[in-house]
């Protein structure tokens, strides 16, 4: 089974699962993301492993990052993390924002790590590599849309043609 198929199966399983826990007010809560209207899909983001859209009621995983990190523990924790966002918004409404105490309480109840971000996840490879004349190089997913010249921020805090940047397309 491919990493994509495994991730999809796991995500759909957790979206259908009912989680029972006590909310921050002491009330017993039983919630299912599917019953709240949430669905699963993949996206093409290169920097976020998962996202939860309250507006479109979707829990999304980055296909590029899942392919680079096929470990099921990472996928499972990310899905639980995003479901916790959906539940926290449902329970606490506008009181919750991001990774605050309301979300942390809900994340622990859903079995997710209650910290934001995962430093062990390898990001998707950048489409471009940027080089400066001093030898610095760093990945970029997009070329800048601005037409003005750019220079390396590590070498100079304002534009300096000595440290101008060159883009090389990787794929």
Largest sheet: 3 strands, mixed
> What value does the Rg take, in angstroms?
20 Å
Structural class, please?
alpha+beta
Side by side, the strands of the main sheet go 3-5-4
Number of strands: 8
- Provide the helix percentage: 25-40%
* Mean of pLDDT: 88
- The best one-word shape is elongated
| N- and C-termini, Cα separation | 26 Å
Task: Set down the secondary structure blueprint.
Layout lengths: L2 H14 L1 E5 L5 E5 L6 E5 L6 E4 L4 E5 H6 L3 H21 L8 H10 L17 E5 L4 E4 L24 E5 L2
Parallel strand pairs: 3-5
Antiparallel strand pairs: 1-2, 4-5, 6-7, 6-8
Helix pairs in contact: 1-3, 3-4
Structure notes:
The chain has 171 residues and is α+β, with helices and mostly antiparallel strands. 30% of the residues lie in helices and 22% in strands. The protein contains four helices and eight strands, in the order αβββββαααβββ. A three-stranded mixed β-sheet has the order 3-5-4. Helix 1 packs parallel to helix 3 and helix 3 crosses helix 4. The radius of gyration is 20 Å and the shape is elongated. The mean pLDDT is 88.
């Amino acid at each position: 089974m491919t990493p994509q198929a495994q991730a999809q199966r796991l995500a759909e399983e957790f979206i259908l699962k009912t989680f029972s826990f006590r909310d921050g007010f002491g009330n017993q809560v039983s919630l299912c993301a599917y019953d709240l209207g949430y669905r699963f899909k993949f996206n093409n983001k290169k920097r976020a492993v998962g996202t939860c859209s309250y507006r479109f009621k979707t829990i999304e995983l980055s296909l590029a990052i899942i392919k680079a990190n096929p470990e099921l523990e990472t996928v499972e924790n990310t899905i639980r993390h995003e479901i916790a966002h959906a539940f926290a918004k449902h329970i606490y409404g506008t009181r919750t924002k991001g990774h605050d105490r309301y979300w942390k309480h809900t994340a622990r109840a859903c079995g997710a790590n209650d910290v934001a971000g995962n430093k062990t996840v390898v990001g998707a490879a950048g489409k471009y590599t940027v080089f400066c004349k001093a030898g610095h190089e760093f990945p970029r997913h997009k070329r800048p849309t601005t037409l003005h010249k750019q220079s390396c921020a590590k070498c100079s805090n304002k534009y300096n043609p000595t440290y101008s940047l060159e883009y090389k397309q990787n794929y």
